[in-house]
């Protein structure tokens, strides 16, 4: 750490189009008093040099091994595709580096558990990018529920669209890997996983569930190549269950482009209802809106998030939410607190997704507590 700032090495940066370029770089630059981007490692030195030049970074690393060995790197940001998370995070931990890894942590529960254990044993901080949890709307919603704004929560219903698992993908090289369930980057794990992390923060844990996972589309059209590509990832996820306070929940995510609102989350309370909406089912990267109906009302009324929840952050949801996670990470590293979403949190979310898959596979209700 130089000049009181944490040095960040980014793994996986493609200027103008990758998640690192759209979210991590602007988020870190918005937190310049806490972080400095040291450099980047990609699949080749040439690629890293091109990314560093385009983004104005001073250093390009030949590979991940060189990046994690660099003494100026305090934190490794892992922003590559899910199948590569395990080996990169493992290498960073072995080198004694703190890690910010994009969600999912691993390709399945077993990998996530192993990485969380390794981070604990090494004494490094592992942060997971479930950034919908720190969105201003979600944080304010949690406060409203905690302060009894709608009374006791009686039930909740969540409807969302997972755009990448519809009839068409725009670019084969970028999106085709999402179609293969074996890669661990599916509608269940990504948009629904992010949203479940936020839902649990607001309403508490899911203690029992049943589920149906279906492939209603088995082939997808790649617009740039004109090919039909096979899809084994589920494009329908239906989950019924019960929260720890006894309230039932119903969830349905479906693949494809939204027809109207892409996210509708309703919370029914004894004294009123709250509705959360967004343009897409990826709650972690879309602007969210809150509305309420108090008991006796007949029309939804907007709920304005207080300005204090948005101060000093990038205005857009993509980089703003990632910046909020990084800010918590910096505070945790300086004070020893644990406010950022952690690898242990990631394991618990992986456990929930594994329970959903088991319930669907066996056609049985699964108890989580």
From TrEMBL:
Gfo/Idh/MocA-like oxidoreductase N-terminal domain segment(s): 6-125
Gene3D superfamilies, A to Z: Dihydrodipicolinate Reductase, domain 2, NAD(P)-binding Rossmann-like Domain
SUPFAM superfamilies the record matches: Glyceraldehyde-3-phosphate dehydrogenase-like, C-terminal domain, NAD(P)-binding Rossmann-fold domains
Domain Gal80p-like C-terminal: 136-278
Pfam families hit by this protein: Gal80p_C-like, GFO_IDH_MocA
Annotated InterPro entries: Gal80p-like_C, Gfo/Idh/MocA-like_OxRdtase_N, Gfo/Idh/MocA_oxidoreduct, NAD(P)-bd_dom_sf
GO molecular function: nucleotide binding
Protein's UniProt name: Oxidoreductase
Organism of origin: Steroidobacter denitrificans
């Amino acid at each position: 750490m130089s000049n009181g700032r944490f040095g960040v090495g980014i793994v996986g940066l493609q200027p103008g189009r990758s998640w690192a370029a759209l979210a991590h770089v602007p988020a870190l630059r918005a937190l310049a008093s806490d972080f400095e981007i040291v450099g980047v490692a990609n699949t080749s030195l040439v690629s890293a040099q091109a990314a560093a030049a385009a983004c104005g970074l001073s250093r390009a690393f030949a590979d991940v091994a060189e990046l994690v060995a660099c003494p100026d790197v305090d934190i490794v940001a892992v922003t590559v595709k899910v199948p590569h998370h395990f080996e990169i995070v493992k290498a960073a931990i072995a080198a004694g580096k703190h890690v910010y890894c994009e969600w999912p942590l691993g390709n399945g529960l077993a990998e996530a558990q192993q990485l969380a254990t390794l981070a604990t044993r090494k004494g490094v901080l592992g942060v997971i990018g479930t950034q919908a949890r720190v969105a201003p709307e979600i944080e304010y919603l949690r406060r409203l529920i905690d302060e009894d704004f709608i009374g006791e929560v009686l039930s909740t219903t969540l409807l969302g669209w997972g755009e990448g698992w519809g009839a068409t993908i725009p670019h084969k090289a970028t999106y085709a890997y999402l179609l293969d369930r074996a890669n661990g980057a599916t509608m269940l794990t990504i948009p629904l996983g992010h949203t479940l992390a936020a839902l649990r923060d607001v309403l508490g844990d899911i203690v029992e569930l049943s589920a149906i996972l279906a492939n209603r589309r088995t082939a997808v059209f790649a617009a740039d190549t004109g090919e039909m590509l096979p899809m084994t990832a589920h494009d329908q996820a239906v989950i019924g269950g019960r929260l720890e306070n006894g309230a039932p929940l119903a969830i349905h995510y479906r693949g494809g482009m939204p027809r109207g609102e892409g996210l509708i989350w309703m919370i029914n309370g004894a004294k009123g209802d709250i509705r959360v909406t967004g343009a897409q089912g990826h709650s972690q990267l879309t602007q969210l809106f809150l509305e309420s109906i108090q008991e006796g009302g007949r029309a939804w009324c907007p709920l304005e998030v207080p300005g204090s929840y948005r101060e000093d952050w990038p205005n857009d949801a993509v980089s703003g939410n990632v910046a909020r996670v990084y800010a918590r990470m910096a505070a945790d590293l300086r004070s020893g607190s644990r406010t950022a979403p952690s690898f242990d949190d990631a394991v618990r979310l992986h456990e929930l997704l594994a329970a959903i898959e088991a319930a669907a596979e066996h056609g049985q209700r699964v108890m989580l507590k």
